[in-house]
Every structure is written in C-alpha cells, then in structure tokens.
Amino acid sequence: MNLKYIVAFGLVITSLLINVSMPSKVIDKINMITVSGYDKAEQNRIKETVVAPTYLEQGTVEDHVYTTSADTVYGNRVKLNSKASEQLLNGKLRVAFYSEELAKQGLKTPIEFLTRDTSIDSNLFLAITKVPAVELINTVKTKKGKGVYFEDLFEHNIIHGNLPDVSLKTFEDSLKGETSDPFLPMFGIEGETAKLESLAFFKDDRLVDTLPITQADVFKMLYENVGDGTYQYKSDDYNISVENMESTRKITAEKKNGSPEMTLDVRMTGVVREYTGEQVMDQKSKIETDIAQDFTEKANRIIKSFQELNIDPLKLEDFFKSKHRSYNQDQFKEDYSDMTIKVKADMRLTGTGTRR
Amino acid sequence: MLSLKDKVTGLMVFFLITASQVGVGVLGFQSIINKYAGNDAWLSVIVAGLMVNVLIWVMYRMLKNDETGDIISIHNVTYGNWLGAFFTILFVLYLVLLAIVVLQTYAEIIQVWMFPHLNIWAFLLLLLPLIYYTISDQFRIVVGVCFLGVVYPASLIFTMIFPLQYADMNHIMPVMDHTLIEIVQSSKLAIFSFMGFSTLLVYYPFIREADKSQKYAHYGNFYTTILYVLLCVVTFLYYNQSELTDVIWPTLGLWKIIELPFMERFEYFGIATLFFSTLPNVVLYLWAATRVVHRTFGFAHKRIALILLGIVFIVSFFIEGREEINFLNDTAAQIGFVFLFIYIPLLFVLNYIKRKVQKK
Fold first, then answer.
1. Are B257 and A169 a contacting pair at CB < 8 A?
2. Which of A181, A239, B293, B337 is the most exposed place for a label (fewest CB within 10 A)?
C-alpha cells in the first residue's frame, strides 16, 4: 500500500517545513568574538570590550574592538550588537580578561555566563588585568589577530614558562571546590606590549594577593609537576641559569599530636645554560645544594604568605582530605594558618651544556 | 504461534538488554547519583548493577517456568484473567511513560545544546515514521536497531581519554568515605539508568532456546555496569563534587574539553551519535507496549502501534522546560523502582505459590 509512504513522507515534509523557519547562523553573517575584557563601570555596571576579527585575505586579520557597559554581560551584547555589522557570537572565545578592580570585588558573577553558555569552550583562558581590560586589549597591535596573539602568549608560558596550567576549567574547579582557592595570571602593559606580570591569588572569588611572575617558578613547582621550566639563582659568588627543568612534587600529610603536618617534597633536575663562576663541574654539588636551599627559602616564604592570608591555592586541603578519613573541614580551616608545612627540595644538575 | 523465523538467537539478548538500559541517561546520571554517596557514588553503580543482575535472574526463573513465557501469561496465571489484564495495562503505561521520558529528554538536550529554537513536536514528526517502521512489523527489526545501538556508540568510550588530562585523584579519594547506607541510597538513584531491561518480560518468547539465553542477559548487564562505572569514575576524577552538583549534563561537559584539529566542539558529534543509543530505548519500550496490548486484547499490532505513537506525540505538546522534564524523570524513576524492587519480587513469590497450588 502506498498510503503509508505518503503519510510518512508528509510527516517528514511537515517537520522540515515547520523547523525551516528556525533562525540559522550563516558563517558570513556572524562574527566570532575571540577576546573579551570586563571592567567595572559606574553604578555596579559591567563594561565589556570584545574583539571580533574579520579575515580579509590570506593571512591578514582585521580586529574590530567594541566597548559598552550594562548590568549583565549579555545586557552588553545587545548594545554591542547594535554596533557590530554582524551578529556577535561566543563560539570562538579564547581569552577573557577581568580588571583587577572587578576581581577584588568578586569574580563569581562576572564569570557565571562562561560556564552556563553551551557554546563556550572549557579550555578558555582567564586572566586579570592590572590596567583596565579595555586598555590592555587596545594596546596590543598584532597582525595575527588579538585572539591568537593572547592565546599563544598563554600557551607558551604554560608549556615552557612560569605559568601553571590555568583555564576556565581549573579556575572553576578551584572556585567551586571547598577545599582549594583559585589563582589566575595577571597582565599589565609595558610600553606598547602586554606583559604577563604576576600570579593573582584569590580567597573564594576575591583577589587578595599577587606574586611576581619571576618568582612564580617556585610556586609552579610546588603546585604541579613541571615538564619544562627554568630557574635563576644569584649568589655573592656566581649567577646561574638552569634550563630544561623537570620537577616532580610529592606531598605527604601526617597527623602529629592531633594536628596535621604537611611535607612537600620537590625533586628537580635541570641543565646549566649560563654560569658566571669557575669550572661548573667542580662546583656541581655546591651549586645543587645552593639551589635547593634557595628554593626551600622561597617556597617557605610563599607558603607563609598563603597561611597568613588563609588561602590554599596549592590545594593542600584537597590532598589532606583525600588521604585522611578523619578530615574535618572546620578543624582543618582553623589549623591551617599555623600548620607545619615543610618543604624539602632536591636539585640535580644533569648536564652543563657544551662546556665543562 | 511464533515461527522459528520470527525468533532471534540467544546472543541477541546481550544487545537487547544493553540497548534497553543505555540511553540519554549516560549524559547526566553522574550528577544525580552523587546526592548521597558523593565521591563514592561509583560504588553505588556497581551495587545497582548487581541488584539488576538478581532481578534478571528472578525474571528468568518466572519466564522459564511459564508456558508461553511472557508477562501477560504470568499475570493471567497468577491473578486470573481480569486482575491480570489490569496489571498488564499498568505495565503498558509504565513502558509508554519510559518512552516519553527518553524522547523528551533527548529533545531537550538537542534544544539546549544544538538548536534552541527547535520545535519539539515538529522534530518528533521526523522520528515517528522511523519508530513506526521499526515497531510495526517484525521483532527482528527492533533487534537490528538494538544491535546497532550498542555497536555504534561504543566508539564513544575512547573519548573518555581526553578528560583524563584534568583528572585529579584527590577528587575521588578516599574510597569508601561514606557509609554503606549512603551508598545504597545512591544506588537507588542509579537504578534509573539501568531501567528498561524489564522489556525482557515481553520479548522472551522471541528468543530461540530462550531458557539458555540467561547468561547473555547477565553479560549485557555487566557491559552496561562496566560502561557506567567507567564513565562515573572519569567524571568524578574530572569534576570536584561541589562543582558536579551544579552541572546538568556532566558527560557533555567532559566532551567540551575535547578539541580536535577538524572539530572545534565534540559535543555535537556526541549528541548526534547518542541518537543511536536513544532510538533502541524508545523503539524497544514502544514495541513491548504494543506487543503486550496486542496479546491482551487481540487488536491488530499495527493499529496499536499507531495509537501509542499518537499518544507519545500528543503528550509532547504538554511538556515544556527543565522542571517538567525533571518531574517526568523523577516520576518514572519512582514508578520504575517500585515496579522492579517491590512488584517483580512479589509477582515472583505469588507466581511460585500459585504454580505449586495448581500442581497439587
């Protein structure tokens, strides 16, 4: 019988006809935002700056920058769209900047939309700006597009530099978790370029402290296993620069006399790249102990400041919780500020380059 | 009577059981089951899987001892014709409800993630001919859909490697941090993801040498359990518990982290592939419902299929938004729990007594 084919065909056609009026998004008629920046505006409003590139011909990109302010981020989108020639969409958002002022007030609400919107990538990079975000975005002049520029800046610093792995995913994880506090990189302007200046530490969602990026190598090695880092050491006798640093971090948590005691054991290996003293081979063991000692001192200073501020970006509580069934959240938080946290460091120089 | 041509081999029970269990639930069960047992909820999945194994054993015991070997005849033997028919109708309603829940949940995901302006009833028009084609004729077509519904989405297991770059052991340790009671409470929530295997009570007569197929049913359930435990562990390693509670579809969140050179967003591929896993659910439930009505009242199979599809379609007009779908899911879970853990064992006992009495 042919009737059933006619009916089935009819249903399919009806379905398509009804859904054909669905708003579609044609690639030529949309503009993908690659970078967005948020500042505090008057009356608790949020000022949003977005960068949306247009690809002209092979290899050339023209970035359009739009700025408006409104009560919510998406309130801004209405205004931004009234300025843009194509509809602005989030699908390609790579980097989001928040001004220091906003971060001190609390980031929970301004980043809320990032996790709610289905089109936004979890690998997105977040950062704080020392100057207003709009200024930072406008300062950067690049031919490869601001989105790619900032993304590359983040990526190589994470893989080879002092920046620990930071993304929307890790930030959200530390923010929502009750046993850790988040941190983010902080950017500033130097002359005509953007510059990664420091790491910004948060208590809950508020910025409370910063650590210069030059000292962040120690933090990074305390925070995670590093695959390719550097270390600079300066003493009265010599200066040394160690490259190809690899480190493994091991935490042990014990309970002594009822109060927790943590030990962070960091083992590092590296290759000498620059050395101002004499005969590095003879001095090897001395250099190794010097660096280990220097590392321990710096690490102790960093941890001390965390304890004073009562923040836990190293996720020590998280670790303690996973190892001790007797863990009690209130008790740990109370103990944290004067807990014994030891740092053990071990440095091994595995090579000296092409010279003895 | 069913001829040998209508029947399928025992091995197919593996696919039928798995396909009836795995569905849209895999996208979101992790953030539901952690309510009581937190980071130990993956143990609850194992507990739930074992309980389902026991139920499968119970069902097989009933079916093997029955002459025809389906729920209609078991009901009739146990309760007599009238009361038996009443309970059979309740079973049909349960199956139709499950089919509606699955379809609506899948449509909601498409609406939230892919096409926000999608007209759900019009979308259903596209699916209904396909479902009708599958359920209106031979059972073998349903089995074919179930087979593909297990094989195609199996490739998605490999995508679970990507989220492991953010895996944190501290999220899941220490194991057994919760009491046994909490784990069992969570396993009650996990049972919902295993539901649907009760269609076994309907398609049992369609299996060749059915009494020897029991091991495949258990294997099928083991496969589902392993799949869920794997997914659950990866999710718990990726999210910390307080974050997970806020996420509606954790599995899609896991896919969000995947970036391939040729594909910016993996979720879309995942959602589309999961259609192969959703379709067998719907098809199997509706086929079973149709079959049961046909066996009870003797109406033409095709006509019943049309009427049931009509009901599913009309209901879709009345369901809108997260809360209603959530309500539907919770109701189906409650009913299913009562059906599986109270009604089935009760039926087993009554059926046993009745048969003993009749023999004497």
1. yes
2. A239
Q: Residue A128 and residue B99: Cα distance in Å, rounded?
A: 49
Looking at this predicted complex, what is its ipTM? 0.83
User: pLDDT by residue (tens digit) across A117-136?
Assistant: 888 888 889 999 988 888 88
Side-chain-side CA neighbours of A2 within 13 Å: the count stands at: 0
pLDDT surpassing 70 at residue B1:
no
Across-strand partners of A268?
A247, A347
Put simply, whether A325 touches B (Cβ < 8 Å) is yes
- How do residues A73-107 score in pLDDT, each as one tens digit? 777 778 888 887 788 888 888 899 999 888 888 88
**Are A22 and B177 in contact (CB < 8 Å)?**
no
User: In order of start, what are the domains of chain A with their CATH numbers?
Assistant: 25-213 (no CATH), 225-356 (3.30.300.210)
CA distance B245 to chain A (A): 10
Is B255 a member of any domain?
A: yes
> What sign has the CA pseudo-torsion B22, B24, B28, B32?
negative
| List of E strands, chain A | 30-32, 35-40, 46-55, 61-70, 87-89, 95-99, 125-129, 183-190, 193-203, 206-212, 226-234, 239-256, 259-275, 340-351
User: In which band, very low, low, confident or very high, does the pLDDT at B93 lie, cut at 50, 70 and 90?
Assistant: very high
Please tell me the predicted confidence (pLDDT) of residue A278.
Answer: 78
Give chain B's contact residues with A (Cβ, < 8 Å).
Answer: 112-113, 115, 117-119, 122-126, 128-129, 132-133, 166, 168-174, 177, 239-240, 242-243, 246, 252-253, 256-257, 259, 264-265, 267
List the Cα angle B65/B336/B58 in 5-degree steps.
Answer: 20
Q: What angle do CA A223, A229, B160 make, to 5 degrees?
A: 60
Please state the domain count of chain B: 1
Answer yes or no: is B101 within a domain: yes
A215 DSSP assignment:
G
* Residue range of the domain that includes B225: 4-354
Give pTM, 2 decimals.
0.88
* Count of beta carbons in the 10 Å neighbourhood of residue B320: 12
Closest to B243 (Cβ–Cβ): which among A177, A324, A325? A177
CATH number of the domain that B336 lies in?
1.20.1740.10
In a domain, B359, yes or no: no
Q: Tell me, what's the pLDDT at B225? A: 93
CA distance B277 to chain A (A): 22
Q: Per-residue DSSP letters for B6-70? A: G-B-TTHHHHHHHHHH-SGGGGTTHHHHHHHHGGGHHHHHHHHHHHHHHHHHHHHHHHHHSSS-S
The confidence band for B231, taking pLDDT boundaries of 50, 70 and 90, is: very high
Q: What percent of chain B has pLDDT over 90?
A: 28
Partner B contacted by A47 (CB < 8 A): no
d(CA B140, CA B145): 9
Start-to-end CA span in chain B (Å): 29
Given a cut of 80, is residue A258 above it in pLDDT? Answer: no
Do residues B254 and B267 make contact, with C-beta atoms less than 8 angstroms apart? no
Residues, chain B: 360
